[in-house]
Design brief:
Layout lengths: L1 H29 L16 E7 L6 H8 L8 E7 L5 H8 L2 E5 L7 H12 L6 E4 L5 E2 L3 H12 L3 E8 L6 H23 L11 E4 L15 H11 L5 E11 L4 H33 L2 H10 L4 H20 L5 H25 L5 H4 L2 H7 L1 H9 L14
Parallel strand pairs: 1-2, 1-4, 2-3, 6-8
Antiparallel strand pairs: 4-7, 5-8, 6-7
Helix pairs in contact: 1-6, 1-10, 1-11, 2-3, 6-11, 8-9, 10-11, 10-13
Length: 395
């Protein structure tokens, strides 16, 4: 019986360490010398930029001003003012965008806003539709690069989407910026080195217009971008990472805004892991779909803080078992996993994080992980399933 428990414990630890292996491979590949990529060829397709917005009056004008200079004759810029109670719509019109207003208190969430915008665009459909969040800034030339990448590949394309800590932010926001960089830049770049797809990230997403019929947009899913990417992959259109196109945003300044945003992202991600990952893994293996297998493996990597907590708990329990006379194998597996995670984070920091966070501040990361324990307890006891907007400083 004791031997059986030891084997089961070892098997559980191997399952915990597998996502660390995926993360390590992604970071290692991303850290290799950069290869120059041939620029996208061909004439720029006709583009519609769709901006879903819910009470974004403080940021919408800056977002539109970063997009408008990049549009050509025949392009469209459409703002979906979704259940707004402020002057987002009026400001967007004054800035030069087409504006459609949607009001439906029962169907809330970005997915519904996107579906509403797509139906509005259908009467004069573009070649490529690009989604930009209302709090994002689009880098110069990024609309063209993203549109060409999408139309040339015939697949959804995802820009490099980074979030930055506002000036004067504390350590936890700096660590969050580094973790975001690892998730959206490093891991996507690593998979792209092998020709594998990336997850859709919410802002800076480009779609061939005719491909939008392949998926269902209208939903209140709290991580609709993640679900959309998986749905496209299952339909034979795995998303392509386009790092030459840049979209950026800032974390909320308020603690409340940060908490709401973090809860939505992480509860949504964990919910998809539990509900969809086993089915996706079996489907990928059964159909021999390497792209779906790669996206599922990426999905199975939990947030860095949770992965750290799981390994620390596994390490402590396994060595306690050794001290009580139990098997050594689980302790060695847990120790290896924790060491591999440490090496992976240091490699990511040395290659991509030096300009984001000092090494001394990085040492605070384990304490940051501990502070997120209530968030993960909340996932078990009261999981967030409804979309909630992240609170800004002034709204």
């Amino acid at each position: 019986m004791i031997t059986l428990l030891g084997w089961l414990f070892s098997a559980l630890l191997i399952l915990i360490v597998l996502p660390v292996w995926v993360l390590f491979v992604q970071v290692l590949l991303a850290s290799l010398p950069v290869r120059s990529l041939a620029p996208a060829q061909g004439s720029r397709p006709r583009v519609a930029v769709l901006v879903p917005a819910h009470n974004e009056s403080s940021l919408i004008v800056a977002t539109l001003n970063s997009i408008l200079p990049q549009l050509l004759a025949g392009d469209r810029l459409v703002v979906v003012a979704d259940n707004c109670t402020d002057d987002t719509a009026a400001l967007a019109r004054a800035a030069g965008a087409e504006v459609v207003e949607r009001s439906n208190a029962q169907q809330r969430g970005k997915g519904y806003a996107l579906d509403f915008g797509v139906r509005y665009l259908a009467s004069d459909a573009p070649d490529v539709m690009i989604v930009v969040d209302a709090d994002s800034r689009v880098g110069e030339g990024s609309i063209e690069r993203l549109a060409l990448c999408c139309i040339d590949s015939g697949r959804p394309a995802q820009a490099l989407y980074l979030m930055h800590a506002p000036a004067g932010s504390g350590l936890k926001v700096q660590i969050a910026e580094f973790a975001w960089c690892v998730k959206n830049q490093v891991r996507a770049q690593g998979w792209a080195r092998l020709g594998l797809p990336c997850s859709l990230m919410g802002s800076g997403m480009a779609f061939v217009w005719r491909d939008l019929a392949l998926i269902e947009l209208a939903s209140g899913h709290i991580v609709e971008d993640l679900k959309m990417g998986l749905d496209f992959c299952r339909s034979g259109k795995p998303p392509l990472f386009c790092p030459d196109a840049l979209v950026s945003s800032d974390f909320p300044r308020s603690d409340e805004g940060l908490s709401i945003q973090r809860t939505r992202w992480e509860h949504g991600h964990l919910g998809v892991i539990l509900s969809d990952a086993p089915r996706l893994l079996l489907e990928a293996i059964r159909k021999g779909n390497l792209s779906l297998l790669a996206m599922t493996a990426d999905l199975l990597v939990p947030p860095l803080a949770l992965l750290t907590l799981l390994l620390v708990v596994a390490f402590s329990l396994s060595w306690l078992v050794v001290l009580l006379g139990g098997a050594l194998a689980p302790a060695l597996i847990a120790s290896f996993g924790l060491a591999l995670l440490g090496v992976t984070v240091l490699l990511a920091w040395s290659r991509f994080g030096r300009g984001i966070i000092a090494f001394s501040a990085l040492l605070y990361a384990p304490f940051y992980a501990l502070k997120k324990i209530p968030l993960y307890i909340g996932f078990v006891l009261k999981r967030q399933v409804d979309w909630v907007r992240s609170k800004r400083d002034d709204t």
